[in-house]
Write a structure and sequence with these properties.
5-stranded mixed sheet; 6 helices; single chain; elongated; Glutaredoxin; Alpha-Beta Plaits; 221 residues; 10 strands; alpha/beta
């Protein structure tokens, strides 16, 4: 024996379906930005547009997802609005990218040891060398400044080793493992020539990071 659907529930279902049908999601990719905060301007431009219901930014893919009325605003209009901020943008996903990361000298001992995966820090310290473990991400502007400084110091800190970790995002395995109490990137752990940890630095300042490296070079705990 079949059971009939109450008219009130049927009506609610139809109204809900109609509402869903009138809403769509448009993806806009942003290109060549050097920090996640660069996306804030586009969010501020898109959110007040009539018909736009929600704007979210995926920092890993450098893409915006815009939920909007299907009949109220077109994807092309949203793209034009996003372009007003000044960054290159493209309609559709899979096209977002950050500015290229700093290129270290070819003869420098710089290695990527993790791209989101767990890693044991103590295993990265190399006997007889000062080792800097550098946590960063493509969307971190201060990380780029740190890379330039480290690159310059390679010439006057003999045998300096740099081991880089891309956290991808704050919820990655390596971030959960080592950065639970860290509030900002980049984050550094510096080991001395004897393999002992010299110190850590939350955020980047040239004086702070160079100070740790100099202590490690001198063998000062």
């Amino acid at each position: 024996m079949s059971r009939s659907i109450p008219w009130s529930l049927f009506t609610a279902f139809v109204v809900s379906a109609a509402a869903c049908a009138s809403t769509r999601t448009t993806v806009i990719s942003i290109q060549d930005i050097d920090c996640v905060s660069c996306a804030d301007g586009i969010v501020k431009e898109l959110q007040p547009v009539p018909g736009v219901k929600k704007v979210t930014f995926n920092r890993q893919t450098a893409e915006f997802s815009v939920v909007h009325d299907a009949d109220g605003v077109t994807p092309e209009a949203l793209l034009a609005k996003a372009a007003e901020v000044g960054w290159p943008v493209a309609l559709g996903g899979g096209q977002g990218r950050y500015a290229p990361q700093h290129v270290f000298p070819k003869d420098a001992d710089v290695r990527w040891v993790s791209r989101g995966e767990r890693v044991e820090l103590a295993s990265l310290a190399e006997a007889g060398h000062v080792t800097v473990v550098d946590f960063g991400a493509a969307w971190c502007r201060p990380c780029r400044a740190a890379d330039k400084a480290l690159s310059a110091w390679l010439t006057d800190v003999p045998g300096l080793r740099i081991r880089k970790i891309d956290i991808l995002d704050w919820d990655s395995a390596v971030a959960q493992q080592h950065l639970a109490d860290v509030k900002q990137l980049p984050y550094f752990v510096v080991f001395g020539k004897d393999g002992r940890e010299i110190g850590r630095l939350d955020g980047f300042t040239e004086a702070g990071l160079r100070g740790l490296i100099d202590r490690a070079t001198a063998g000062t705990p």
